[in-house]
Amino acid sequence: xxxxxxxxxxxxxEGAHKVKIVKLETQIQQTPKFExxxxxxxxxxxxxxxxxxxxLQVDTTDPSNFIPEVQTNWFAIIKxxxxxxxxxxxxxxxxxxxxxxxxxxxxxAYISPDTLEKITGKSRPVEGDVEAVALIISGxxxxxxxxxxxxxxxxxxxxxxxxxxxxxxxxxxGLIIAKGDTPFAPLWSDRYPVEKPKQ
Length: 199
Known about the structure:
Layout: H1 6-10, E1 17-30, E2 48-60, E3 66-79, E4 86-99, E5 104-111, H2 113-120, E6 130-138, E7 153-155, E8 170-172, E9 176-177, E10 194-195
Parallel strand pairs: 4-8
Antiparallel strand pairs: 1-2, 2-5, 3-4, 3-6, 4-10, 5-9, 6-7
């Protein structure tokens, strides 16, 4: 159990939240197949998505044990098959009512098969095509002082260089997408907080 710090005590009246990214992982996933009734089935060859998942350590002074919102900014570096240069993909997903009772939560995002194939030139990409991923966490009431700020960002490599903010790479925005915008939307609903609808 994570003990509340003196930092929390100062903001207890309005609720203070601590979020730390513990783990950041990628996995190639095939498009899921579902069996449904009442429609004529159509055959298709499952394609390949990049799934990015983060495990979070969470705590809050809110007596409800929920953090109202956690904003996630995702970054990925993928090698462009045509130019042989790396490009940076970005995306934003906001999760709401993040449960802190168990001190652990997970967040997730995806890169679509079309995006992967267009950049890598492969219909079946591999994890090696992804040079790095990074995640930045933010949100109202989330601790962001010098002591805890490091826990609000994590990268799979060169974490200290903050390559996602360097301007070094050509950037393609909005191509890392929410689970709710993918065929994975109905899966694992109890593992992830609810996504906030786009405005």
